[in-house]
Amino acid sequence: MNASATIRSAYVRASMMLEFQARLIVLFSSAIFMFAGIVDFPRIISKESPLFASIVFGPQVIHGFLFLFANAMLAISEQHKWYIPKISDPDWLGAFLNATGGFWFMMAGFFFFQKDELAAAAAAMVGSWAFLVRSLVRWYVVMEFC
């Protein structure tokens, strides 16, 4: 095996590890967000409690940040050069849109901390649209093979 083939195979293994690590970060951030969703059920913790915002909105901010970080890692790993985005690649576009959605859900958590419900609703709407467009891109790719 020549040197370039060795380097190429090492790069492929490293990029696969990066994708695995990013997906693992998404899994852990989803578990954190699940905790916030369960605690937000009525009568589990009072909305007047001083810890309510930290327990409910804190995990939302952490989840959004980790989702942003993991999907930014994926988007950068899809590019041949880190500074040139691959807009025509559905995998890159999906990772970018997921990172965008994660950012806006993180911002919604920050806005909820500040009790700015209108800004939080707008941020959650933008994040939801990013996830919707990402789902449509993935659906298009899947239907291309049917």
From TrEMBL:
It comes from the Eukaryota. Keywords: Membrane, Transmembrane, Transmembrane helix. The chain crosses the membrane at residues 20-39, 51-72, 92-113, 120-141. This is MARVEL domain-containing protein.
